[in-house]
Design a protein that fits this description.
Layout (H helix, E strand, L loop, with lengths): L3 E6 L7 H16 L2 E8 L9 H15 L6 H20 L2 E5 L3 H4 L7 E4 L14 H5 L9 E3 L14 H9 L5 E2 L2 H11 L4 E2 L3 H4 L2 H7 L13 E4 L6 H14 L3 E3 L6 H4 L3 H9 L3 E4 L2 H9 L4 E3 L12 H9 L23 H21 L5
Parallel strand pairs: 1-2, 1-4, 2-3, 4-5, 6-7, 8-9, 8-10, 10-11
Length: 373
């Protein structure tokens, strides 16, 4: 007997490991509290893989790639990753609620006792869904049902063109939280409301559960004898030099999950992604969730800042996380960076802090996922 039904609204698409992993983690946290969780998926070009045209493109490019036609390799890798993340979503996300962009606003959502937005950068306005900010502020549901679990903005100042949408959306959230301190500060300055600062759900879910979830890739080399890299931005010559230096020093090969010219690496599943971080000798990344899982497994790791214009605004979430734990030595270029001590070796105080934050996250959900009839 469940306590009720919760509707989860989060980032969509079959191309990013972070959004699939945090979707899974938040689902599991809410299930642990006795709720049946449904994830809302708006049907558009980001979420629809199983069309006949997509399937045809996949098999044509698969054939050309096997024949050695390199021109198709990048496109093939992208489609293969999308296919595998689509299959992952069907397997691990329990109840997918597919609706059209228009039906979001006309459907009666009374069957759900609460609606949860988060985690990740759901309040960024990526312009991927109609009325995107209203959607991620849950304005298609009743105010008393709206809960925000650790969402993020991905910027440090509200864009002028969206500021009223943010103000209206934030004022309509019954239970308000945010993932980063600077986000909580922004909310206070804009609305006068206090948002509780909560951990990303991937950090709240117990390590033991991630160990049961992970899966060894078929191509994986011996445990602890490879280097794993995952970048969302550009790997600069300076970054590559650092990776090559460590690889040469230890004599281990590099598995690069961002290399579109190696389809089997680029198309790993989220469960394989977690396994590869867990068992790597060293992790190099500019990704928030690459950093999170390096922390969970206390790995030797180097975290880089993305260099593209505007990407530095997203680095705050990584800096915020490692700073509160006293782990600045993993940040490449930081004055505390150390080639000898750059691993995530958590102190007793850091572990106690994380335990307390995990309990706070569960309490927030327990108190706010109340049945609203």
């Amino acid at each position: 007997m469940t306590k009720g039904k919760a509707l989860l609204v989060t980032l969509q698409g079959y191309f990013n490991y972070g959004n699939r992993l945090q979707n899974y983690a938040l689902q599991e946290l809410i299930k642990d509290l006795g709720y049946e969780v449904h994830t809302l998926m708006v049907e558009n070009h980001l979420t629809t893989y199983a069309s006949v045209w997509d399937r045809c493109k996949f098999y044509v490019k698969h054939v050309f790639t096997k024949l050695g036609v390199k021109h198709f390799l990048v496109s093939y890798s992208q489609i293969l990753r999308k296919r595998r993340l689509f299959n992952f979503t069907k397997k691990y996300i329990d109840h997918l609620e597919f609706v059209s962009e228009d039906d979001v606003w006309t459907r009666n959502w009374d069957e759900y006792d609460c609606a949860v937005t988060g985690s990740d950068q759901v309040w960024h306005n990526w312009h991927t869904v109609k009325r995107e900010l209203d959607y991620y502020y849950l304005r298609f549901t009743n105010e008393e049902k709206r809960v925000a679990y650790a969402p993020s903005f991905g910027f440090t100042e509200f864009p002028n063109e969206d500021i009223e949408d943010h103000r209206r959306g934030l004022m309509g959230i019954r239970a308000l939280s945010c993932r980063e301190k600077e986000g909580c500060d922004m909310i206070r300055e804009l609305t006068g409301r206090e948002a509780e600062r909560l951990l990303d759900p991937t950090l709240v879910l117990a390590r033991e559960k991630w160990e049961k979830f992970e899966e060894r890739p078929s191509f994986a080399v011996e445990d602890g004898k490879y280097i794993f890299t995952y970048f969302l931005g550009i790997i600069t010559d300076e970054y590559k030099k650092e990776i090559d230096r460590v690889s040469k020093e230890c004599g281990y090969p590099v598995i690069n999950a961002s290399d579109m010219l190696t389809p089997e690496h680029y198309s790993i599943t989220p469960s394989e992604f977690v396994w590869l971080i867990h068992h790597a000798a060293h992790v190099f990344t500019d990704s928030f969730h690459g950093t999170v899982f390096s922390l969970i497994y206390e790995k030797q790791a180097t975290v880089f800042e993305r260099v593209q214009e505007g990407a530095n605004r997203m680095f705050g979430r990584i800096r915020d996380l490692v700073s509160v734990l006293g782990m600045e030595q993993v940040l490449y270029g930081n004055e505390a960076f150390s080639r000898d001590k750059r691993g995530f070796k958590l102190s007793r105080e850091a572990k106690a802090y994380l335990d307390g934050e995990r309990e706070k996250a569960y309490q927030f959900l327990k108190e706010n996922l109340i049945v609203q009839r």
